[in-house]
Amino acid sequence: MARRRREDAIDQWIALPWQAAAAAGAICFVLLHWIAPAILGGAVGRALAPMFGLLGWMALFVFGLIAVVSYVRASRESDSFTLRRIEPSAPHAHPASNPVQTSDLRADWPRPTSVAQSEVPRPSAWALDVLQRMDWKRFEFLAAAYYERIGFRTEPIRWGADEGVDVKLFRGDLSEPVSVVQCKAWNGRPVGVSEVRELLGVMTDSEVKAGVFLTTSTFTDAAVKFAEGNKIALVNGAEFLARIIALPQETQSELLDVACEGDWTTPSCPSCAVKLVHREGKRGSFWGCRNFPRCRYTRPKSTSK
């Protein structure tokens, strides 16, 4: 338990700008190396001065190391956003005042296809289990549809094969987005601070001051603390479900149609936009792309999407 708390504390420091750790190290060094012995004074201060000096150097080293790790991680994430981003050729948005039909929703996005696609029964009502069973691509369609229903125009941002398609949100006739949404359909583990940092990178790259991180799972304490200081709203699975249920019954039904269209539970390949197929290997079963060997994307067969 104590070890986990220490790891969480270190993660929180790493999540902060590197200058924070550098400043903390400098302050600890000054306090321990000079101020503490001076406050004690006399023989006691002189006797404990070497110990305080050693502690000061240790604090400076630890916080300095944290600052280096934070700086390197932030630099790598910033570079990765520049390399991975593929902008859409033109925005295709549907005004919220004229809701689109389920079959036409996000027609500009590559839709997952399947050979001999099987129909999974449509649930009769919304439940957390529906969100958690959903294909990650279908969850992104749902997110776009939800924000369109509550008055936004949406525009997708295409990325590389990282199962992360973000959505820009627009108000009225404004040409600049007011927010950006990142979706993660994860069930087996909570979303950590590194994923929330990625959203901050999207916000910075898009020059958007507000962001929303939407997941079917939950968030770690470090992620929550990081989001609070960067104008990022975190919406977990239970909270997103509550927002949907708060909508009129007709709108709930429309969103359920979007979420549960076709084979809505089998995961999709982020590279080929086709449904994955079940395969058996030496280490057990897994999901694989049906375009193998041209596409070698795989993922473990687990509840995490």
The assigned structural class equals: alpha/beta
Please state roughly what percent of the residues sit in beta strands, choosing from under 5%, 5-15%, 15-25%, 25-35%, 35-45% or over 45%.
5-15%
Examine the coordinates and then state which fold CATH places here, giving the name of the CATH topology of the largest domain. Answer: Trna Endonuclease, Chain: A, domain 1
Span of the ends, CA to CA: 28 Å
What's the overall geometry? elongated
The string of secondary-structure elements, in order, is: HHHHHEEEHEHEHHEEE
CATH architecture call of the largest domain: 3-Layer(aba) Sandwich
The level 1 CATH classification of the largest domain is Alpha Beta
Low-confidence stretches: 77-117, 159-165
Fraction of helical residues: 40-55%
> What does the radius of gyration come to?
24 Å
Query: Numbering strands along the chain, what is their spatial order in the largest sheet?
Result: 1-2-3-4-5
Major sheet attributes? 5 strands, mixed
Number of individual domains: 2
Number of helices: 9
Report the average pLDDT across residues: 78
Q: How many extended strands?
A: 8
Q: Short summary of the structure?
A:
By secondary structure, the protein is α/β, with parallel strands linked by helices.
